[in-house]
Design a protein that fits this description.
The protein is an alpha+beta fold and about 200 residues long. The strands form three sheets. A five-stranded antiparallel β-sheet has the order 2-3-1-11-10, covered by helices on one side. A hairpin with a 3-residue loop joins strand 5 and strand 6. The radius of gyration is 22 Å and the shape is globular.
Length: about 200
């Protein structure tokens, strides 16, 4: 009897370790997120979207909501990295402008507690960019993106819109997508006006 009880106790302990290990390992995992944002210099009129469209109003409201859930993580510029070769190719191509190449390290919490990491930059000569990104796990890894992009106002641009006051205004573009991501792969988020490349790597593996 004593031997049987000891075996049962050992079995319960082993079962607890096997069941508890995945959740513990997932909670302790850290990931490096690397982001490359770029714009397309030349687009056709058919690819221009009105900044007064209903979807844009919804995305502006969502953007304000997301900005209240921003984490304290500060993305760092990437001089090297997994996307550096692609960045260099885009930088040499006159049809593209590199807007931002950054990275950061974070855990992947559950959706209920996941916060957003923000890239916010105003470029004197090219564009204004506000990007918000959220990595979380629901079993697999998921990645939310919400990017607002506004090009510099160009007096003679055919893409200008007219405001209610009769002034020319440059349209604002949004990219809002959710993807299930695989580790160590490059994922492309497409928009007619700009693009986003993202890759996620486990830290220390």
């Amino acid at each position: 009897m004593l031997g049987t009880t000891a075996h049962r106790l050992a079995g319960f302990v082993l079962w607890g370790l096997l069941v508890g290990a995945p959740d513990f390992a997932m909670a302790q995992n850290s990931y490096q997120v690397e982001i490359l944002l770029f714009s397309q210099s030349t687009i056709t009129d058919k690819e221009v979207f009105s900044s007064r469209a209903p979807d844009t109003l919804y995305l502006e409201a969502r953007l304000r909501s997301v900005m209240r859930l921003t984490s304290s993580i500060e993305p760092q510029p990437s001089l090297t990295g997994h996307l550096a070769a692609i960045r260099d190719i885009l930088a040499r191509n006159p049809n593209y402008d590199v807007l931002s190449h950054t990275h950061w390290i974070q855990d992947a919490p559950t959706p209920s507690v996941a916060t957003w990491v923000t890239i916010d930059t105003s470029m004197e000569a090219s564009a204004e960019l506000s990007g918000h990104f959220r990595l979380y796990t629901a079993g697999p890894l998921y990645f939310d993106t919400l990017v607002q992009y506004r090009t510099q106002l160009e007096r003679h641009s055919s893409n200008l819109e007219m405001s209610a006051d009769g002034d020319n205004v440059q349209p604002t573009y949004f990219l809002a997508q959710t993807r299930r991501l695989k580790l160590k792969e490059v994922h492309y988020f497409d928009h007619p006006r700009f693009g986003l490349l993202a890759t996620i790597w486990p830290v220390g593996k």
